[in-house]
Amino acid sequence: MKPADLVRRSAAYLEAHGVESPRATAEALLMHYLGTDRAGLYARTDGLDARTAKLYGRALCQRCSGTPLQYLTGEQRFMELSLSVVPGVFVPRPETERLVEVALESIAAIPAPLVVDVGTGTGAVALAIKGSRPEARVLATDVSEAAVTLAAQNSARHGLNVAVHQGDLLSPLPADLRGRLDLLVSNPPYVTREEYETLPEEVRAEPYEALVGGTQVHERLVELAPAWLVPDGWLVVEIGADQGALVQALFEARLDQVEVLLDLAGRDRVVRGRARAR
Ligand SMILES: C[S@@+](CC[C@H](N)C(=O)[O-])C[C@H]1O[C@@H](n2cnc3c(N)ncnc32)[C@H](O)[C@@H]1O
Q1: Looking at residue 1, what is its pLDDT?
Q2: Residue bearing the CA closest to ligand 1, atom 24
Q3: Active site residue 187
Q4: Most CB contacts within 10 A, which of 128, 139, 250, 255?
């Protein structure tokens, strides 16, 4: 069967199993297994060899039973970057691009800023910042060993020098960075336990520790930020759409110039604030 016909049949199968964007999913999986792009896929008239057909068929089944597409293709686009993704590490989301935009805007006037991304996952935020500000010194942390390994691989893949450290929040950072950071940025786990139970299966396929935290990590970051930031340095965090007022209040207790910023859909998405003079 030609790939174009196979896409049609597979899309119908995926749709029948309630998979979102069935045609795009079938195309992405087939492009992955054939090692081609969309033009190559539709130009091809040969059928699949037995091995590729088996791998593709298995991936369709896994997708139908809730495995995220990105865990099957091993790739996710984030801003200008193609990032490697593996099961066990959070898949970067498009809404986090807003976090990066606000972070970059916050440090736009600072020459060679010192930046730390907490809870880096694939390295998405840290690498996007380093890609836009090559002269910045960028470090990243994560508690997850799998995330730290993957972020380091993505850093090498793109030739973007980000130092990745394993540990809780800021604890693995060199101590001499205390009081010197221009920007502390984080997309922490912020889903509540109750929300977690209602998430689709494919989201619950991602690590629990990367998803669930409510506003606890925000609170801990606000407590740590004044000691690690330069005066006027920025703490910029992503939040859940209904966490704006709560995180704003946490920020206002310790930071100045606090703002809640919206995403493209008009929902609260990012909170930022600046360290006070010591
Ligand atoms: C929502 S994911 C964000 C990943 C990545 N920054 C992104 O936006 O794609 C949260 C990440 O924080 C990490 N994490 C959770 N608790 C942490 C902690 N106490 N210290 C450091 N990292 C933590 C998780 O392992 C996960 O990789």
Answers
A1: 85
A2: 210
A3: yes
A4: 128
Determine contact, residues 3/29, Cβ cutoff 8 Å.
no
* Tokens, residue 229: 């930031």
Q: Is the CB of 212 under 6 A from ligand 1?
A: no
pLDDT of the residue at 277: 86
Write a three-state SS string for the chain. CCHHHHHHHHHHHHHHCCCCCHHHHHHHHHHHHHCCCHHHHHHCCCCCCHHHHHHHHHHHHHHHCCCCHHHHHCEEEECCEEEECCCCCCCCCCCHHHHHHHHHHHCCCCCCCEEEEECCCCCHHHHHHHHHCCCCEEEEEECCHHHHHHHHHHHHHHCCCEEEEECCCCCCCCHHHCCCEEEEEECCCCECHHHHHHCCHHHHCCCHHHHECCCHHHHHHHHHHHHHEEEEEEEEEECCCCCHHHHHHHHHCCCEEEEEEECCCCCEEEEEEECCCC
* Pairing outcome for strands 75-78 and 81-84: antiparallel
Pairing of strands 229-238, 181-186: parallel
pLDDT for residue 278: 77
- Contact in structure between 218 and 263 (CB atoms under 8 Å): no
Confirm or reject: Cβ of 147 under 6 Å from ligand 1.
yes
Return the domain boundaries, the chain. 3-65, 76-274
What backbone torsions phi and psi does residue 240 show, to the nearest 5 degrees?
-75, 155
**Domain 76-274 class, CATH top level:** alpha beta
Residues of the chain with pLDDT under 50: none
Examine the residue annotation and report whether 90 is marked as an active-site residue of this protein: yes
